[in-house]
Each structure stands twice: as C-alpha cells, then as structure tokens.
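INTERNAL AUDIT FORM
Audit reference: QA-55
Scope: verify that the stored structure record matches its stored sequence.
Auditor: D.O.
Record contents follow.
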Amino acid sequence: MTTARRARIRPRLAEIKILERRELTPDHWLMWIEKPEGFTFKPGQYCTIGAEGIERAYSIASAPHEERIELFIELVPYEEGGHLTPLLHALNAGDKLTIRPRAKGIFTFNPNFKNHLLVATVTGVVPYISYIRDYLHRGESGHRFFVLEGASYHDEFGYDDELSCYAADYPDLVTFIPTVSRPGEAHNKGWQGETGRVNAIVEAQVEKLGLSKDDTLIYACGHPGMIEDVKARMLPRGYSVDEERFWKED
C-alpha cells in the first residue's frame, strides 16, 4: 500500500495599497489599507500584512461592513526588536503592502454575556472599536460595553473622540473610561480623567459600575503584563476573562 504525501499549499498573498495614514504621536499612527476582494473577517480578528517579505499580524479596527481595513500601529524601533513597524512607519498613502487572504483570531465578541468590560492598553483598544462599530451597524441591543483604556500619555488614545461620542450618543450602550499612568509629567498637563495603570483600577471600576461576575465578561487586550495582572485580580473573584496579547516584535 502506498501513501500519498500532500504538499502544504500556502495561500497566495494579495498586493494592496495604503489609502490613508494619520499621525497621532511620533510613534503611533492610524492607517487605512485596501480590502482585497472577498476578504472577510469577524470583529476582533486580525489580518497579516507585510513589506519587504516581513509579515506581522495586526488587529482590525474597522467593522466588516466597511470598505477599507483600518489599523492602529505602534512603532517598535529596530534596536528594540522591531522588524516590520519601522518599514511601515516609512510608508505613505499610495505605497504597497501584502496581505494574507484570510483573517484569523478568536478574540471575538461573545453575546452570551450582558456586560462587556473591555480593558486595553493603547493599540489594544482596536478589537473593541470593531465590536462596537459592528454592533451599532447591525442595530443590536441588550448588551453594554465598558471600555477601560490605559496609556502613558493622553495623545496615545487613538479612538478617544470616537468612544467619547459613542458614550454621549448611546449612554445606555457605551461607557468610556480612559486613564493615564504618568499624570505628573508635563505632556499630560491638564489631564482631568482617571490616573494610574489600567489594570490597577479595574477592581474599583467594576465596583463603581456595579458589574456582576454572573453576567460580565472581562476582555483584556494589549500588554502581556497588564493581562496577567487583570487575571490575577479578577479570576479569583469569579469573573470570566478573555485575552489577546500584543507582543513586541521578534
């Protein structure tokens, strides 16, 4: 008896253009890229893009119905292990990238819980933007989103205006609580919001918001240290925690 050996076929790369980019800080920017024909995804999934043969995965901020793919990217310098982000940082609208034909990831919205506490550090907020945009687009109801986002500096909140508008227009759906970890530095002069690392204020906010372990799912996305601390604080209290880790490039 003979056994046929199947060759592993890698999906073909598609070539796409950068359509727009917007600078937030010297190290953070928003970028919109073409969506290839037939490219589909669920809110919370990621795409794999590349330049000069180097590929990395990035969570998608846009909702599935949008015509463009929206990304929020943080520069990791070469000397700190960055490979793709320094290349992306040098690109502008009109420049080309590659993208894998399928989105991946399981960090998606779970409708089985009424309340969703969405904890993030900086670019970790991206999946939550996709959740909320999609939820509003589909006209869903019966759930609540509490976005708890931490950053070192106030200008690192890539979606603070959008989230603040949702909180104002849909107060029974969205609550937005940003916090800065370095309130005493001059760059944060005039900051009036919460202070401290986002993981350090989770317990107090859960109590303040009246979130029960029985109907609340905590999502933690971003820095691995933040995620581990959130789990250490909330799992012993009986809360369910879902996670997505954003590692520095290797």
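Auditor finding: record pair retrieved intact. The domain at 115-245 is CATH 3.40.50.80 (Rossmann fold).
Action required: none
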